[in-house]
Amino acid sequence: MTVPKITAILTLIGVMCVDSVMSLSIPVIYTTGTHYQVGHDMGSTFTGRIQDYHRRSSELNDVLKPFYKTQKGRDVYNALLNVTNSTLPQFIDEIQGIADGANVPFYEVFLLEIRSEIKLLLKQLTESECSDIALNFVDQKTQKQWTVQAHNEDADPLIGEYGYLTIAHIIDPDGHYPEEQFTAYTYPGYLPGNAFGFNSAGMFFTVNAVFPKEVETTMIPRYLANRLLLSAKSVEEVFQILNKYNSASGFSLNFGSSVESAGNQLLYNVEVGPGSKQYSNMSVALANNKQDGHYYHFNMYKHLQVPQFNSTSTQHRDARAAKLPVPGNLKGIFDILGDTADPDYPIYRNGKGKDTSATIATGVFDLINGTMSVYMDNPKTSDGPVIVIPLPNPNKSST
User: Fold this and answer.
1) What pTM did the predictor assign?
2) What number of CA atoms fall less than 13 Å from residue 394's CA on the CB side?
3) Spatial separation of the C-alpha atoms in residues 366 and 171, rounded to whole Å
4) Using CA atoms, how far apart are residues 19 and 253, in angstroms rounded to an integer?
């Protein structure tokens, strides 16, 4: 059976900020096919972006590739490639498609997929990771419900220049792999899933990096685990995946379902550590007060007890958020995610001074209105998102 190919690209343009270094726009690719074909579409559509990113990335050229050339580096690379190929071969096909489509070496694409593990092994911690706020609260004065997961995607500013949205429908004509449909903010030349997105079952996800001191190279790389979780069709399946597939390093996963009715909505946070079935979870249930109905997550473990490296940026962002009013609506969330008061390590990051990372996008999942909104500038001062996408089976309760 031949899978019909459908590929389209659209560029969404917002308002230009006076002090912005780049236009507030994001390209969107619509693609249908096998894992390889979807990867190839991403690679061929964004060849220029991916090649430029590979050429300009200091992390790839000055850290990952030199490590790969050492014996230890090759051993780590081969171990992580082998475990991925034996457990999740469909994503190796996807990576091969990206490499072939963009005309870049496979090993460079895979090195970027295992960057988390390599940098932990080298003890070269990146501060370029994210901030999340969960709010699940009914305002007793207005009886308005706010069920929101909001996420600052923090990264190397270079990724912000070249990132895109992927809207994909994956079909395996041989039936070896499940059908997938998802929308995800995607780093240039990476698999989708390590930032924020949702799938056709109404499951939405945001990811925060954490920095465990151990790495298990016989387990699947963090970014591959994130890609797999993007396919989960229910909350139960998320936990099934976590129980079956163990992570080489660690991550924090924020997720929920747009299918649940308003009163039953839960916003979940799972912290995953390296090794066998090592994770901890908590959830934010609908509350009648802001204090019980909110949760913050940055880039250190909060409830899973594993040895971890400190993150200076996390400590600053966490401390600053604690000084601000607890959010009770979207404006309150944006007042925190858009805060720039800390001169060294602000919550909304600009890639200047001591903090070399930038907030490259903000994703907002509004479960009451049933939408995912993407902001390409500071949401606190923005004129609005560059794109608003309906979530599957949205809950449009008027409470």
Assistant:
1) 0.93
2) 17
3) 29
4) 32
